[in-house]
Structure formats: C-alpha cells, structure tokens
Amino acid sequence: MLARRIIPALDIHEGRVVKCVRFLNPRDAGDPVDLARLYDQEGADEIIFLDITASYEKRDIMLDVARRVAEQVFIPFTVGGGIRSVEHIRDILKTGADKIFITTAAVQIPHLITEGAERFGSQCIVVGIDAKRRTTPEISHEDKKAWGAWLQEDDPRGWEVYIHGGRTPTGLDAIEFAAQAAARGAGEILLTSMDGDGTQAGYDIALTRRIAEAVNVPVIASGGAGTIDHLYDALTTGKAEAALIASIIHYGTYTIGEIKAALQQRGVVVRVP
Amino acid sequence: MIAIIDYGMGNLRSVEKALQHLGYECKITRDPLEVARADKVILPGVGAFGAAMANLQAAGLIEVTKDAVASGKPFLGICLGLQLLFTESEEMGRHEGLGIFAGKVVRFPEAMPLDVQGLPLRVPHIGWNSLNLKRPAPVLRDVPDGARVYFVHSYFPVPEDPDIIAATSEHGVEFTCVVWKDNVCATQFHPEKSGAVGLQMLKNFAEQ
Which of B11, B119, B125 sits opposite A94 (nearest CB)? Predict the structure, then answer.
C-alpha cells in the first residue's frame, strides 16, 4: 500500500534558505543542500523548494541550487516560485528535479498546466493553490484551539483563490479551480490554507477534504501544522495524501522521524526508512 | 565504466548523479560504440513506450541494447527501461518492445478499488510503496522485505515466465516490479530516487 507522504518545505531567497515572518523580513537560515540532506536522512519522503527571489535576473541561482540538490539528495524534489513558461519548466527538470509547481501562473496562464503536462508528463506538474475562507470569524488566530476548531468546520461561503504569494484575491472558488487544474493536467495539488498558514493551529481540514474529494489527483495539505495531531487529521479526516511541514521541523519542535513514528503508531501508513 | 543509454526519454541526470555519489564511473551516452565497450549498461527512461522504441530505433540503439543483454554483462532497466525489455505494451495502442522477456506491459485497471480514505486509488501510481521479495536477485542484496521504493508509472509488466519475477508490489492489484534473469535485472520503480534503499540497489548493480 502506498505510504502517506511527509514533505518538508524550504523557502529559498537568492540561493539561501530563509525564514520569513508573515512573508516579511527574510532571515538567513542556511544552505539549502545541507538542510535537504538532513531532512532526507531524517526520513523526508520528498522536499519542496519555494523560490521567493523577487528579482528576475537572479532566478538562475535557484537552478544552481537544484543542480546541487540533485547531486546529493536521492529522493524526489519539487521546485516552484516564479515559473511562467515551458522553457523555465524544462530548465528546472533538467537539473534533476522531479516536479515543478506553479501557483500564480496556474491562474493567469492556465494553458501552461496543459502544455507542461503534455510535454513532460502530468506527474511532474504540481498546481499550487493558496486559498482563504470567505468568512471572517469572531475569534482571534492567537486562540489556537478555537482557530483550529474553526478550520475543521465546513464553510458554506467557500474559499477564494489568492495569487502573488497571497497578496491578490482572484474571486475564484478554490474547489472549482482545483477541479479545473486537475482536468487541465495537474498531477498533484499543493493546497495551502492562508487561514492556517503561520498559525500552527492546524490545517484547514474542511478545505483539504473538499478538494481531495473534488479531484482525482493527490492533494498535499499545507499551512498550519503545529502538532502531530494536525498531520494526523490532514491525512485521515482531511483525505490528503501528503502533508507539508515547515516551522515544526525548522524550529526543531519535532524531527521527521518522531512525526512518522507517532503517525505509524496511530495507524497511518508511512515510510520508515 | 557504466553506460547510461540516452535515447531522449526523460531525465538521466538523477541516475548519473546517484552512481557518481556512490563513487562509480559512468557516462550518459547515445554512442553505440561506447555502449558496446561499457562493463555495465543501464537503460533508464520516463515517458511513452511507443515514442521510446521509435527513439531507440532512430538512434540505432536497438541492436546495441540487445547485444549488451546477450553479452552477459550486467544490465539494469529502470522504469520505462524495464517495460521496453518486454514483448509488447498496450500504452496508446499496441507497440512492440525489445522482446528480451516474454510478456505484456499493461495499465492499472480503469476502476480502481477505494483506499482507506474512501477515495479511489490514483493512477498514475506515484509515491513510496513496499516490496514483496520473491527471489534473491543480486540487485536486491541487503534490501529487506517490505522496504519502500519510489514509483511513478501507470503501466506495469506481466511476464509470461513467473520465474523471472524477483519482487512485486501492490496498488489495487499485485504487480511485478523487479524482474531478473541471468545478467539482466530491471525495476519498475526508481532506485535513484528511493533514498538509501535505492542507493544500495545501484551499489549492488555496480559491484556485480
């Protein structure tokens, strides 16, 4: 039986891993290759790199990072951030990367999904969706328990797709958009809840489940992981095939090994290398 | 020297990088002479079966590949490189393969059973799945039964001779994922992306 996947995500700025506080003030946190190797050794099933380099001229730095990762990391890895052409996709895959992901471009130039899938296979085209609930709750996200409970509940008003790193609302319904992306050839959906992101109160379970049921491709749940319970919920009730993690391992709350051991004990099928 | 046959199907860098990481000399090549001279040969590949056979043909690599197999030197097929060894594939019509092993390459069934989440199992089969070891192929030395390896595929081989099956895996159906006969071994999964277990297999191959 296929294992549910645990995927660390690294934000890359001009070739270095950075930690951002709410998309601002990137602070240097080390060499991407070193961190990727560490997570590989700890049992990561894949690694996702998000290039947040703003300057177009410095985009080639990420290609160099991907090349160096391919020399030292022997599990699948995915690169995203600022991709807008088939040529760019080709350049990334040529480094040895297994998949690419597009978020803003998936909304603005959706035929890129189809072109990428036709040329390289849908297995390497991941569509990123940044989604936010249309409802504003009465509670504060600092009340993690209440916020986490809110993210478990279905929302009749639905979720809206955002682009440009969460800055621009599009008016699009996230569930409809996910179904369209899969129909266009996306091999996987990387679903980030903007309500969960950075709160460590839990994934948006209702959103994850709605999208997993609406598409016939795997969904990677992202945004909000603070405890192992959150991952468990995403991989069971949320019906995600994979869970993205960032802060909880970057800050050393848990190791990937600890997370997998705990999930396995609770009956989730994971790969324990 | 290990020759990695380049016939324009998918990314070969990962295989090259993994072997280099392990300290083995290897070369990505489409030169028939270089393939003939190599001590060991790898046939990798990702993509469609028909296009792959057409590319092999166009590059003049069909005979060279068959010769490498017949020569008795260690030969490893990976993913599409495994499928090409069989008689034929049903991917997008019917396509003839290299015919080194008798059997067909078929797709996962249209209607897949439901998984534990109540969703149909996905095709392509992508991710880490476990091996059921059947026979001790040299490539599988020191690989434990149940070890997980990385798959990306929609088709799998059905060998006519069950004796060549060295390992299977399960995704709705039990399917063959390692075949082995004499000097030829092939894996449906990607050892070069299967972490420590995969590197062990590549080492086993290179040390033969």
Answer: B11
Distant-in-sequence, close-in-space partners of B160: CB < 8 Å, separation ≥ 6: B101, B102, B103
- List the CATH number of the domain containing B50: 3.40.50.880
> Are B188 and B79 a contacting pair, CB within 8 Å?
yes
Query: Which domains, ranges and CATH numbers included, belong to chain A?
Result: 5-265 (3.20.20.70)
Return the closest-CA partner of residue B1 out of B25, B19, B18: B25
Q: What angle do CA B123, A2, A44 make, to 5 degrees?
A: 115
Q: Which two tokens stand for residue B94?
A: 């019917």
Q: DSSP H helical segments within A10-130, as ranges?
A: 32-42, 60-72, 86-94, 104-108, 111-120
Distance of CA A87 to the CA centre of its chain: 23
Owner of token pair 């848990």: A254
The whole-angstrom separation of Cα A231 and Cα B16 is 35
Q: Which of A63-67, A82-86, A139-143, B99-103 has the lowest mean pLDDT?
A: A139-143
pTM of the model: 0.93
Residues of A recognised as catalytic: 11, 130
Domain count, chain B: 1
Residue A24 has pLDDT above 70, yes or no: no
Structural domain range at position B199: 2-207
pLDDT at res. B185: 98
Rounded to a whole number, what is the distance in Å from the CA of B125 to chain A's nearest CA?
8
Q: Residue A137 — pLDDT band, cuts 50, 70, 90?
A: confident
For residue B9, name the pLDDT band (cuts at 50, 70, 90). Answer: confident
Q: Which of residues 98-137 of B touch A (CB under 8 A)?
A: 115-122, 124-130
